[in-house]
């Protein structure tokens, strides 16, 4: 006997409604008891303000003393948030909670001297689309809002080693405060304030440059299907090579992984390990000038969390790493004053 599309849709709805303990809509979407909460950022990439050999890894060098640094960044992420829900199909049904999202980031920094500097970034969403979480928990729901504001960031950094541009190695400590001012119901902000301490390393050998950043993002947790979005570590590394000196052109590869520190929802053994890689380039027409343009593109890595094929009522699998990402970043960074 063959079943038509209508019968399959009814069966899918029946299976989802038959599992109220695993999928609940709450009056407060950020409630800890909500099993599919939108209160986390669909685009977890933080673009750094200030000159860097990379697109996404911050530099350990200090800002120029008494000089302002500016950033204008634009990014596109495809399929950054998916949910695999129970279905007659053993592989489950994929819901594009956020199918496409864009982020524009405006940043400013200022050098305070003695290796210190502060910076602030305001990211916002000019356009995004998807079903939103209401498309999972309700039979009839409006699509995801197309514009939103992400949580702003305010940070301070201190370069302990390598304050001079000619030093081959640099090491810095940094701390970001991220207040919950974004649109959390549109997957553009966290449930509460985020505290993000970290360290950055940078090394240069001839035309090669190496960078690494390790930080923590400490925040309140919410559940999204089979994973918990909350506190996490962010580990990034990259290498670049100088192809041209004047005009300046560097190409490289960078990658990062965000292991979750908040555990998993009850009854879930899913691995929450979003990871991405990017091929990046940095170009400056005037090698001694303050302007540089970074461009990058890449995708998620195979270790990223993914769907758990299962036709049962426990297969609400959250996926929070984009299938593709593209970035552009224009930076204005004056040289260090003498």
Features of the shown structure:
338 residues; mainly beta; 2 helices; disordered N terminus
Describe this structure in words.
The protein is mainly β. 5% of the residues lie in helices and 46% in strands. The chain contains two helices and 17 strands. A twelve-stranded antiparallel beta barrel has the order 1-2-3-6-7-8-9-12-13-14-15-17. A two-stranded antiparallel ribbon has the order 10-11. Mean pLDDT is 85; it is low at 1-23 and 307-314.
> Can you write the helix and strand succession as a string?
HEEEEHEEEEEEEEEEEEE
Instruction: Give the tally of β-strands.
Output: 17
Radius of gyration: 21 Å
Strand line-up across the major sheet = 1-2-3-6-7-8-9-12-13-14-15-17
In the predicted model, the low-confidence regions spanning at least 5 consecutive residues are 1-23, 307-314
What is the distance, rounded to the nearest whole angstrom, between the alpha carbons of the first and last residues? 82 Å
Helix/strand/pairing category = mainly beta
Mean pLDDT: 85
Multimeric state: single chain
Q: What is the overall silhouette?
A: elongated
Helix proportion of residues, in percent?
under 10%
- Largest sheet descriptor: 12 strands, antiparallel, barrel
Topology, please?
Layout lengths: L4 H13 L50 E18 L7 E21 L2 E10 L2 E2 L4 H4 L10 E2 L3 E9 L7 E10 L15 E12 L2 E10 L4 E3 L2 E3 L2 E13 L3 E10 L17 E10 L6 E10 L16 E3 L4 E9 L6
Antiparallel strand pairs: 1-2, 1-16, 1-17, 2-3, 2-4, 3-5, 3-6, 6-7, 7-8, 8-9, 9-12, 10-11, 12-13, 13-14, 14-15, 15-17
Provide a concise account of the structure shown.
The chain is built from 2 helices and 17 strands. The chain is mainly beta.
